[in-house]
Amino acid sequence: MNDFAILNILYDDEKYRLCLQDIIWSILDEFTWALPAHIPQNTDIENCITHIDLFASETAFALAEISHILSDKLDKTIVERIKYEVYRRVLKPYLSGRKNSWDCLENNWSAVCAGSVGSAFLYFGTDEEIQTVLPRIKETLEYYLKGFGDDGACVEGINYWAYGFGYFTYFAQLLYQYSDGKDNLLDNKKVENIAVFPQKLWFKNNNTVTFSDCGDKFTQRSGLIHFLKQKYSQIAVHDDNCSLEFDGDGCYRFAHLIRDFAWRKNNIKVQTESENGFYYFKNAGWYIKRTSNYEFAAKAGDNKESHNHNDIGVFLLNVGGDKIVTDPGRGEYTSDYFSSKRYKYFPPSALAHSVPVVNGIVQQEGEEYRGNIVKATENELIIDCKDAYNDCSLKELTRKFEFYDDKIVLNDNFAFDTDKNDVTEHFVFDVKPTECENGLKIGNTEMCYNVSDFECKINEVTYASNYNKQKTVYTVDLKHIVKIKTVETKFEFNIKILERSENK
């Protein structure tokens, strides 16, 4: 639909119009616009048809917008049918006051659903209907904003920042226009902090911080970023290498795409390199550091975050544009991936992250499993990870990172109230490590440690990422041989900037 909608906007060609109308007609004839996995079991037929989820709300928004833009080109019957189906499936059920699962969610759902439904009302609704639903739409969007701390960090990951905040922004701008500038949801300091968040996660070679369910490359919706730049001067606009391609969205969201065309500015100043420095997102528990030699990220938080991975104390390290210590990011999206079986999948599990294994216990999901950043400065980061493990004998587990120009030093300190404890330091690498005299060689980096203190085991792990792409990482288990009450492990990541390492 997107392709032919854009072609109809650009060209006056009958064959494009007919193709678009055929596609729209097929969408209007669908049994439901909701994704089957989102519809509760044993739902009656009528409620299946009128179930409002991400896809139903996005479809309503897209059809309303296409109908508005192309009203003079589309057959009148198609235009009337679009309005009829949008009302029948989405607007009338929402007007009825029926509660939705996303009304009070503090994640991307609330922004996408409320923003899309609100936008469809702004296109199709009467003034009376708009005034009726507007307080409820705004209330849900407030819940979305509650999912962020004042630092503006999106714990769901950078891709979900673009998804949720994109739809928040699209509705905000339509509402601003509808109200003649009187209702401005973007005139808010917290919203501004959310808007500037992604640029702090941009690493060399278009890599990014892959915490939570995040893709492995930094991509931006160029229209969204260019628009936000007009609102907030500190927004960094990256070059086209970071822009999502025309068909780069597997869900083909029209709201994103049309604004990539309409909001993009050709004369806007771009930033070709990320700025060095460190960022501490206190509310989210994220720490980001960029230098001319390496890029680093680590997090605390808890293990019940939206799109959570069991990863308290995890860290990432990139050297010379290459990933060294990595995080697999998002796995293949299936119904089980978002069920109680989620952590049987490799990407969200603790074993997909560079965090210790304590007495054979890996981190579990749940808000009670958490960590706290004790100290965050340009040269030092300390994370208290003790509460991330369900081990009553564990009395202390702190991760201390010290940062230098050419190395990073990691000290893990364990304290137990019993003897004979097992400590395994677990690492996940993007390139295959090789054992050497002082530890491991990984790409342009050496990880040095006292090899006589550990048993080393290297494994190759292949897993399904999103869209079922097969990817491979390498895990290393360093089992501490000495079993005592107090254990201190030390690892030096010595940075050696040579040629870019070979791709796997």
In a few lines, what is going on in this structure?
By secondary structure, the protein is of the alpha+beta class. The chain has helices at residues 2-10, 14-28, 45-49, 54-69, 76-95, 108-124, 127-146, 158-178, 189-196, 222-231, 254-262; strands at residues 277-281, 286-290, 294-299, 301-303, 315-319, 322-325, 357-358, 366-376, 380-384, 394-403, 407-416, 423-429, 434-436, 439-442, 445-448, 454-464, 470-480, 486-495. The model is unreliable at 500-504 (pLDDT under 50).
Model description:
The protein is an alpha+beta fold and 504 residues long. Among the domains are: 148-275, no CATH class; 279-495, Beta-galactosidase, Chain A, domain 5 (Distorted Sandwich), CATH 2.70.98. It is built from eleven helices and 18 strands. The chain has helices at residues 2-10, 14-28, 45-49, 54-69, 76-95, 108-124, 127-146, 158-178, 189-196, 222-231, 254-262, and strands spanning 277-281, 286-290, 294-299, 301-303, 315-319, 322-325, 357-358, 366-376, 380-384, 394-403, 407-416, 423-429, 434-436, 439-442, 445-448, 454-464, 470-480, 486-495. The strands form three sheets. Strands 4-8-9-10-11-18-15-14-13 form a nine-stranded antiparallel sheet, with no helix packed on it. Strand 13 and strand 14 (439-442) form a beta hairpin. It is elongated, with a radius of gyration of 25 Å. The two termini are 37 Å apart.
